[in-house]
Design goal:
2 copies of one chain form a homodimer. The first copy, chain A, has 409 residues and is an alpha/beta fold. Chain A folds into 2 domains: 128 residues, Aspartate Aminotransferase, domain 1, CATH 3.90.1150.10; 254 residues, 3-Layer(aba) Sandwich (Aspartate Aminotransferase, domain 2). In chain A, the strands form 4 sheets. The first copy, chain A, has a 7-stranded mixed sheet, with helices on both faces. A 4-stranded antiparallel sheet of chain A has the order 11-12-15-14. A two-stranded parallel ribbon of chain A has the order 1-13. In chain A, a hairpin with a 5-residue loop joins strand 9 and strand 10. The longest helix of chain A has 27 residues. Chains A and B meet through helix 2, helix 4, helix 5, helix 8 and helix 9 of A and helix 2, helix 4, helix 5, helix 8 and helix 9 of B. Chains A, B: GO terms for molecular function: L,L-diaminopimelate aminotransferase activity; pyridoxal phosphate binding. Chains A, B: One of its GO terms (biological process) is lysine biosynthetic process via diaminopimelate, diaminopimelate-aminotransferase pathway. Chains A, B: It catalyses: (2S,6S)-2,6-diaminopimelate + 2-oxoglutarate = (S)-2,3,4,5-tetrahydrodipicolinate + L-glutamate + H2O + H(+). Chains A, B: Belongs to the class-I pyridoxal-phosphate-dependent aminotransferase family. LL-diaminopimelate aminotransferase subfamily. Chains A, B: Homodimer.
Chain lengths: 409, 409
């Protein structure tokens, strides 16, 4: 009799964005004439950079002739893309990595979801709170998170609150945790850590033999000098951290699917007997067994991001979103709200007025000004009393949303 | 201290095709003037159908304008592709499935590798032998396969030998097994099961509450009437089987990455308490958490396979490969070899003469006629004494390889 993995049954049935979609549908049915402005889900709206379009057309044409056809590629990705990454994302910042430390994937969600497979199911884990739900859910699925308590917290997860009270700087734990997820610039709060703050985490990890999963999907939005683009800017990080990168928010690849994961050769984890094992080797084996590489066409598109033309086009798109972020941040501040993020990230984290609950404030915005955000509590218990807005919308929508909110207040 | 998943350490260090690549490299270095004919690895060589090329160009252009840009798609795939699949692959054979029973993916390797996640790690499992290595390796990684014995077999895996002696028809087990992997048309043997033979497996599964993972990646190569294209042609299969399909070998998508998995709503597995749980729901949750959908451009390319033009082009490519298979099969037979497969599959399974070992025969072919095959034992213990040749090469290479082998004999 085939038995199910019962850890899956512990997951709450509904997913944050499905719940929101249902509430939006209800609103639409009951308010057919109203125009909604959606500043909720973190999907991009600008088209792909022209350099990527040109490169993908060329790659599609290559697939049409036997002489230039590409079949199975390397599971780890093509060298042309890996070389472009090493040169532009790392060497330019003084970080030296080798090609076999880079794994091209079909997006950061897959790898952040799958990475836990190479580790024992009963390692302890910690997350900053609020956080991207995949980190916890993927650990629930293998039993690592434990049981869900009435307070909305999982029993084997250490939550590191990030709120206005601590300036969104998570406190270093006072005990050993085996695996820590850090996402900076942060989704959902849009806040960052300075190099000095991130160094404290690397030092903690080295002292405690902790493995850091560092999600840098929003790295391209960093504007301030003192914010690290890669955790490997911190000395010693190659011995304790895996870094996840994505082209989704950098170059609009949410529908094209490409990102990469850095697993340094120096990084090891232990067996029960204390033997040290290369995590790079384990992850390579995982990818060779359960993944067959990313589309050749997609990888040629991603390579084009690193051309002079591609870089200029990516910069223009990010400037557009960051101008949206500025308009929203300043608009909300002038309306009297407390807002965070939006300086080095496309996310605005809004404190609800008078400690209104996240879901209640979400509904007020939906019904009273017809603007859709994402309830902060959907990202974890410490998100209660906040709402996330994203800067990925159309310029006019951002301006109109601010106008409506100012009028409403 | 982060601890590794020690099951990974049980996997033999090298992968079949890496070992072969090394031997080929050694040969090349020591025999620089010789022209090798590679009939080993199962990658296609014909370009993509023109219909797919046209569709992908159009999709790339859509991504270049904000009005037609596509960001995140559904994790389960776009309706346009799912509808084309339902109509052409199933309704046309009298099989009724609903859209939510289809999950578009980035290739069958990912899903055949990941599907085991939704089941308890200690279910018992069975595989036909020889077999595609991913089935076993992915189960080793979660501990389900047990320990590797000196005989090359894993302790918790039931091997169902398929050899010339039993006409490559696996014997129905005399005891209950929780999960059975079946791949038909078979990789590596190229053999098939008739509808009557496959029905015995469905009946066994229903009687024993067994879950069948049915890999139909080579379905498009079936030529004979009595060979089922889908396991759902057998009554009751929706209650016991998941089917994996791939566009890799159908339409040359090995470098484009697209396939799909069918998880019928009727299919359930049990909790320890005996409660029945929908496997479709679990798999949907897995995909929504750890996968972000397949590239929009890729899915538009796959949709074009189902147009009248696309179907004609796919047929022409498959006819080309199957003519290669005929040439190789008949060439080898006339040279006195016993060969199997190649009638409903792009694989030829060659019995080595005089019970020569697989690896020894592989080296004889490599060094004496400069033809590369794949040693049968690389696919499992029952593959010893066989060699796999694939029909995916160039026509002239197949003809030349047969000429060399005839001369050699």
């Amino acid at each position: 009799m085939a038995l199910v993995n019962e850890h899956y049954l512990k997951l709450p049935g509904n997913y944050l964005f499905s719940d929101i979609a249902k509430k939006i549908n209800t609103f639409k049915v009951t308010h057919p004439g109203k125009r909604l402005i959606r500043l909720g889900i973190g999907d991009v709206t600008r088209p792909l950079p022209q350099a990527c379009i040109t490169a993908m057309h060329k790659a599609v044409d290559e697939m049409s002739k036997a002489e230039t056809f590409h079949g199975y590629g390397p599971e780890q990705g093509y060298d042309f893309l890996i070389e472009a990454i090493l040169k532009n994302d790392f060497a330019s910042r003084g970080i030296s990595l080798s090609p076999t430390e880079i794994f091209i994937n079909d997006g950061a969600k897959s790898d952040t979801g799958n990475i836990g497979e190479v580790l024992r199911w009963d390692n302890s884990m910690g997350v900053t709170d609020p956080i991207y739900p995949v980190y916890i859910d993927s650990n629930v699925m293998c039993g690592r998170s434990g049981e869900l308590g009435e307070d909305g917290k999982w029993s084997n997860v250490t939550y590191l609150p990030c709120t206005a009270e601590n300036h969104f700087i998570p406190q270093i734990p006072d005990r050993r945790i085996d695996i820590i997820y850090l996402c900076y610039p942060n989704n959902p709060t849009g806040t960052t850590l300075t190099k000095a703050e991130l160094k404290k985490w690397v030092d903690y990890a080295l002292a405690n033999d902790t493995l850091i999963f560092f999600d840098a999907a929003y790295e391209a939005y960093i504007r301030e000098d003192d914010v690290p683009h890669s955790i490997y800017e911190i000395k010693g990080a190659k011995r304790c951290a895996i870094e996840f990168r994505s082209f989704s928010k950098t170059a609009g690849f949410t529908g094209v699917r490409c990102g990469y994961t850095v697993v340094p050769k120096e990084l090891t984890a232990a067996t029960l007997d204390g033997e040290r094992v290369s995590v790079n080797k384990l992850w390579n084996r995982r990818q060779c067994t359960k993944f067959n590489g990313t589309s050749y066409i997609t990888q040629r598109g991603a390579e084009a991001i690193y051309t002079a033309e591609g870089k200029a086009q990516v910069k223009a798109t990010i400037d557009y979103y960051m101008e949206n972020a500025r308009i929203m941040r300043e608009g909300l501040q002038s309306a009297g709200f407390k807002v965070y993020g939006g300086v080095n990230a496309p996310y605005i984290w809004l404190k609800t007025p008078d400690n209104t609950g996240s879901w209640r404030f979400f509904e007020q915005l939906l019904y009273e000004v017809n603007v859709v955000g994402t309830p902060g509590v959907g990202f974890g218990p410490s998100g209660e009393g906040y709402l996330r807005l994203t800067a990925f919308g159309e310029r006019e929508d951002c301006i109109e949303a601010m106008r409506r909110i100012r009028m409403w207040i």
